[in-house]
Structures are given as structure tokens and as C-alpha cells.
Amino acid sequence: MSAATGARDALGLAIVLTAGPLMLITLPLVTRAFTTAQAGLGQALLPDASALHRRISGLEQERDTARAQTVAAVTAEATALRRLERDIHDGPSPSRRLPTQRRTSSTPGSSTSRTAR
Questions:
Q1: Interatomic CA distance for residues 15 and 23, integer angstroms
Q2: Structural domain that includes position 35
Q3: What are 43-79's pLDDT values in tens digits?
């Protein structure tokens, strides 16, 4: 039995001594093959980043435009509300009166053209 055990140990030692250096030599090649495969899968499965960046910048620009329009609308409404409240309190300003509301220097019933007697 010791001869069979010795032969088995020698065979195992021979496999380790040949497989070890073979694995060390092929390790960079195997690593490069797996990293290339992973990079290829990443590019195939993930969308183009530059297209996403263009979409994001477009959406940000639309958001900024919408915010500016909202601010302009709120400001215009606040101005109109202040003008309305002022007109209710003080009466309309002279520049905003209708032509029929403008004050005239003539009094009702007096004629502007007098005839000489």
C-alpha cells in the first residue's frame, strides 16, 4: 500500500508543479478576456451616457424656462392685484381713467362758447 500511496503523491505533486506555472502564465490572458467580455456586456446593456446627458440638460433647460414663466406670471398677477386694490382705495389714477371720467374745467350747464351781447 505504501507504493500506491507514494505513486499517488508523486502524481499529485507533478500535477501541481505543472498546473501552477501554467496558471500563472495564462492568468493575464484569462483576466484580459474576462474584462473585455464584461466591458462588452456593459456597453451592450447600458445606454449611451452622452445621450442621457443631452436629455438631462434639455430637461433642466425646460425646467428653468417653466420656472421663469411661473415667476413672471406670479409677478404680473401681484402687480395687477396691487393696482386693483389701489384703484379701489384711491380711485383710478388719472392716466388710467376712461375719457368719460376725465375731469373738465367746465361746469355742467355752462356753455363754452358765449355769444356777445
A1: 12
A2: 16-46
A3: 888 877 788 899 999 999 999 999 999 999 999 999 9
